[in-house]
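Morning, I've got a small favour to ask if you have a moment. I'm working through a protein record and want to make sense of it properly. The fold is given in discrete form, as structure tokens running alongside the sequence. Can you walk me through what the tokens say about the fold? Thanks so much in advance, here it is:
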Amino acid sequence: MNRNRRKFLASGLAVLSISAGSSPALADEPARVEGLTCLDYGRSFICNTANFNRVRFWVESRTILIDGETRTEFYQCGSCKSENTFGEKDLFYADNYDFLPILGEGHWLIFRRTARLNPNYRSIKKVEEVWGPPLVKLCEAKKISLLDTWEKIRDASAAGTPIVSRTELADETTGLRAIIEAPVKTLNISIDKSMYQVDTGPVAYPDLSQRYEPRVDCLKLAFVAFNAPHFADFVVEQPTPVIEEEREKCQIHHYSKPFSKPAKNMLLAVEDA
């Protein structure tokens, strides 16, 4: 069994131990998971090499697609705005749009969200056609621990410790699997109910119902929420009607139509080395 395969199995097994109902003593040592890693999302970037624009993108989430022994990583970068790059003035375009790229397997998947439906909302280009060959500058977290009880999640949240979520999905028909890894930006904690709830995004949500070529084409932008180890809810950006007085006025790209998926979730604390 190869190293990547062992890492994946370790993550899948470890997540089963997260339980909101278990309450070990707070003095317990944080659980360690052999071979498990995550990115340090404050120090991971995609650095491009074109002379006209060596743009650097912050890596905002990572999605790992697993097809048998083939493992493909996609890096969803931080959003920016359409701009008059290197202009003398008026640096933002008046007819502005959100711009968000995802890198994977030699391709950029680029999202452009305008104020109205955009036929160019989603496009795929080879890396050499955009900003030249990218340099993937990833920094792995040097020390992590598994937050496998509600008490550990509560205390890590209160301490301001960086937390990374991992959500594993699978499709029984195709045999495809995926891990969505992202820094947790919003984490709800209920002292009264002894519950937590992750709400974070955007992330690169993979359609596992079929195989795509290129593989990056399987991805959509989404937010993920979960408060238990066995399911995750998603809301995906897509054409969405704007309804006023029971009439559709127009359609825009918006996060809509929530749905739920069986999943294996875990939370990791990124500790000081």
